[in-house]
Queue: 3 jobs
Job 1
Amino acid sequence: MIEITSKANPLIKQTKKLLQKKYRQSSYLIEGWHLFEEAVRAKAEILRVFVVADQISQLIDYEGQLILVSPEILKDLSTSPTPQGIVAEIALPNMMPPSQFKGKYLVLEDVQDPGNLGTMIRTADASGFDAVFISEKSADIYNAKTLRSMQGSHFHLPIYRGNVLTYLNQMQSSGVTCLATTLSKKSVDYRSLSDLSNFALVFGNEGQGISQEMATQADLLVHINMPGQAESLNVAVAAGILMFSFI
């Protein structure tokens, strides 16, 4: 075990940079015991663990690299105002998208709020979806707010970032039905659908919804009937309703 006592230590300075997206080229940081335990259970590649002295007893069986730091240093590596005593550096996963598709997929086109993104991924995990595909313009899943919202769900199911229209084309070639959510007059009430097995459920940007290209490519446009006076639902709430309706 290594002990570091100064914020000026090169490793601390290097690690702190991972709080910024532009430096997350090969690894990212997680905070708190829950996410750390999820990483261990998922056998994620944990590069190093920073922990304060009064929490070290919880790591008695951990065999990876431990770095003992002061509460002040740990707070420097955290975005939380009240850190839980542990920060871990995790290697970014290197996953190739599948060549064949069969199952239930969540596709997110330009969802930009980290809280919404994390909640939708967590809901996909809870409702038994097989993978999540997010566009390049969607929020970063390794943003601290996204990580808190996901609560470790990114360890449970694969998440792919890229051109979602290309992904959907590949899914459709494998017989997956693309359902895109929109308030268009051409959309149908989701409650009219049944016997769904292989499908991709698409949600768009919080303000703009799905793109015209997405609406054109989709096999079916769907909406949630709203008997009240609100114009729309929060995208994460809408995603929760539909994902659990289609399982």
Job 2
Amino acid sequence: MTETTPYDADRARFTRQALARLVLCDHAVDVADGAAGLVATENDPDSGPGGRVSQAFQLIELAERALASAVIYEREQGSSWAEIAQYLGIGPAQAEERFAANLEGWNTAFDVPYRLDETGRKRIPQLPTAAYDPAWACEKLDRWAYVQRIGIDAVSSGLVMAVPEEELPSVTP
């Protein structure tokens, strides 16, 4: 698999540390968007029993993925296992063991960037999407950051109120 793709040239413009940071950013966006889904109340009637628990549990999975990306970024940045472990509340050997598979997958993806699908005809990237196509990731993440500056009234509009606002007694000072 020595064929190149347009993404290879884009990726070559970035350091591994920068690519790791893009992946961390992308995973952080997933966590933020997942958490935002729990903030809005207007769709609560459409959620089945346990739906919000399911969403909250998915946040844990997304946060774990972001944590693994943060560890990879820190290692690319030169942080030691001892420095990383102190923030995890575990020993350096435990930290290294916990994230060894993630780091190995990251490192291997640079040596073997693609695998063939079951048909043997389609190449599947081994790097996370943000590292595989960093130009797209930068555009997506910049757009996300811009949009976050725009507020909407998604919380109060969907709350089920005990008393409608128009029936509240007026209060005079």
Job 3
Amino acid sequence: MNGPHDMGGMHGMGPIPIEADESVFHSQWEAKVFAMSFATFCNYFPVDETRHASERMPPGDYLTSSYYERWLYALELLITEHNLVTPEEIEQRIAKLSQEEY
């Protein structure tokens, strides 16, 4: 597969920023995405399927997304494709969480 995730040999992407003493998670939502993804991926989806799901992210989105945003994209894609939840259920939950934050 040749897409934005396959960056081997590409030029002009600039150096990879390396943070000194970088934490595993930069915010709480990343830890939650990791936990949900790990639990779901281990029980429902093989690693190759999860990798393929993140690689199906639109190229512009892929290149501007963080590591855990790609994990979230793959998780949402796979749980809807496998009929574990509907896209509407995801949107309803997002709306509910948004109201609770404010």
